[in-house]
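BACKBONE STRUCTURE TOKENS:
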Amino acid sequence: MLACLIAMLLIPGPVRLTQRLDESSSVTSDGSQHIASPDYRLGPGDVIDVAVFNTSNLAQTLRVSSSGSITMPFLGKVAVSGLTGDELEIELASRLKDSGLVRDPQVSVFIREFNSQPVFVLGAVRLPGQYVITQPLQLVQVLAMAGGLDPIRAADYMQFQRRGKAGAAAPVNLTDELQGENVRRIDLKKLLELGEEELDLPVQGGDVIFVPERPVSMFYVVGEVNHPGAFQLPDEGDLLLSQALAQAGGPMKTAKIGKGMLVRYDEHGRRQEVAVNFSDILRGKKPDLTVQRDDVIFIPGSNFKTIGYGLLGTIPGTVSGTVIYGASRGAR
């Protein structure tokens, strides 16, 4: 079952999760259709239809108040928060019978609008926002409702916060990591790739799911290459200078690859210049260095032999508006 749901996360767009065929269909306040589970528990903001067989004057459409109650004719205020539709039918039938209003009451309760059980899916997912749950769901199912992870931006973990009450307001900041109590960090690789079911937690109203954006490390290749610009370092594994040159489309015919230069900034922001002979590297005569974050690789040639250093003086500002290329994961 979990494997099937994980596969849903790869489908572009939201996934509507349904229940058994005998469950009643209803809508949320935004007009979207949902499937009502018998286990759904009422809360503030929900709208219900109450009907009593052969007693039309007791038929009502009612909204659950902020205090979690409804007001019925002849019965007054009735606490309904936390009850299922079936439990409310039994409660109303008992009160009608005890009051002597109806000898053998047959009560039906239909949930017209689901509004009391919102969950918030934020961060690097395809469709972040607020979702109303109408049935018991797990983390993977809720991620599927939000269209799945954004494969480019999503980090390798997510945060899950139980806020304690379904009526909690939406988080104000949708980009910062969650703070406070009841925040749990969940490894997405273990959850989605390895299928560790103990991480697939049950979700209830008021919960917040946040997928952070993974930090992006860049390097730059300029000069006489076919595709100069900014490039993304791989998340895993090292990237070598020769591989960086290949990602930039390789050298142009006029390039002087024996006179390359690596510009690297230390932890204090000081620039260091290292001569790089790509001809020797490709022949195995010199070691192929590992590219680091914010490195600038310069390949001189007939077009850039005089203005190359001018470009280096403005890196990374000069290339910040160029196309950003992503390095594949696990590059070697």
About this structure: The longest helix spans residues 85-99. The CA atoms of residues 263 and 273 lie 5 Å apart. The two ends are 36 Å apart (CA to CA). Helices lie at 2-8, 85-99, 139-145, 188-193, 241-247, 278-283, 308-312.
